[in-house]
Design brief:
Layout lengths: L14 H9 L14 H4 L2 E2 L10 E3 H5 L4 H14 L2 E5 L5 H16 L2 H4 L11 E3 L14 E8 L16 H26 L4 H8 L4 E8 L11 E4 L5 E6 L6 E5 L2 E4 L7 E5 L1 H6 L9 E3 L7 E8 L6 E2 L16 E2 H9 L7 H4 L6
């Protein structure tokens, strides 16, 4: 993981500033590298259709012995069928979430020069800028981002941490502590939901690294011609996502079709990452997802990534291997993550390299 932190991304223009220029032009010219015609050409299933919505899991029911078994089964099915779910009654205080989102919004409101104090360096993907830009001709996302290693505290590189707003570090501490507890609980119940030993997953993730990516998606009057975040899977174990209220944009791919996620107020959207797909021998799915743009409203999201031990050899755990059928090649997580960061986002391309022919 230490070596992976040294992998940077090629510099690209600031999209927030670019959007202000483009949206104020009468002819609304979008630079060619941002034009993504697939956005308008692919069918998207509306997220307000309950028959096509990602599952909703109640964390309080998981914790309650009277309802835990039934909710565990629902959780297991959600991770197998969708790889995504919305988590309600998760126990994170509204104040903790409100403080974090308020501070993130405040950071992105600052003038560009102020945000540049946290800019990425060529040798690091941490800080303010962009990620996964590996060539001068690849298509670009209509977004700016800020990535930070947040837990454990000794892993932080404070060169990239904002000093404004002053409460930022305190807000991140409080929220990351809460999500660590949720992540531990979910891993335990995911294992129980498919009849596996929870200790197998907990020992790999408990007390390990957390990274946080803050995404700023500016509006674009030609929203059907740009992409907020390219289709991809997440390399980590679990991802917990928050977003500003009232502006949707997350889409999930299932059975070859895109489904819009209508995020519930107060819910945390959770998805399975590549590491858990491999560890579970494909039982749990790391699903392709992307972010699209709103024509006249900004969208801000915060993704908290929960990583495994940096020295982990990632391969299917015995608890998930049936009839001696192993579906994935083994690799060290540090190598997997380093390769993931060194490539552009491209659907499930990276994890598919590790699937074995059956």
């Amino acid at each position: 993981m230490a070596e992976a932190r040294k992998i940077g991304s090629l510099p690209v223009p600031n999209v927030q500033a670019l959007a202000e220029t483009c949206n104020n032009k009468p002819d609304d010219q979008i630079p060619e590298r941002y034009i993504r015609m697939e956005v308008s050409s692919e069918e998207v299933i509306a997220g307000d259709d309950s028959t096509c919505a990602i599952p909703v899991i109640d964390f309080a029911k998981l914790l309650d012995p009277r309802s835990s078994e039934e909710e565990c089964l629902k959780l297991g099915c959600a991770c197998q069928d969708w790889g995504f779910f919305q988590l309600i009654n998760h126990g994170v205080p509204d104040e903790v979430i409100g403080n974090l989102m308020s501070d993130v919004v405040e950071f992105f409101k600052q003038p560009l020069e102020a945000k540049k104090a946290c800019s990425q360096l060529p040798s690091s993907h941490e800080g303010y800028g962009q990620a996964f830009v590996v060539s001068d001709d690849q298509k670009l996302d209509w977004a700016d981002m800020m990535y930070l290693q947040v837990q454990p505290s000794e892993s932080r590189d404070l060169r990239f941490w904002p000093t404004h707003p002053p409460s930022f570090r305190r807000s991140v501490d409080a929220y990351s502590s809460e999500t660590a507890k949720i992540s531990r609980g979910l891993l335990e119940f995911m294992a129980k939901g498919v009849g596996a030993d929870p200790a197998a997953l907990l020992g790999i993730f408990e007390g390990q690294l957390q990274g946080m990516r803050m995404n700023y998606y500016p509006p674009c009057r030609q929203a059907d011609r740009v992409m907020g975040l390219s289709p991809h899977t997440d390399a980590a174990g679990l991802t917990l996502l928050l977003q500003t209220k009232g502006v949707q944009g997350l889409q999930v791919k299932k059975d070859g079709r895109w489904f819009a996620v209508d995020a519930l107020d107060g819910a945390i959207v959770v998805n399975v990452g590549d590491t858990i797909e491999i560890l579970s021998n494909g039982k749990f799915k790391s699903v392709e997802h992307r972010a699209v743009i709103h024509p006249n409203k900004e969208r801000i999201s915060v993704a908290m990534f929960h990583y495994p031990r940096s020295d982990l050899m990632v391969y299917p755990l015995p608890e998930f291997v049936k009839d001696d059928i192993v579906r994935y090649k083994g690799t060290s997580y540090s190598d997997y993550f380093r390769q993931y960061l060194a490539e552009k986002l491209d659907g499930r391309t990276h994890i598919e390299k590790f699937k074995m022919e059956q």
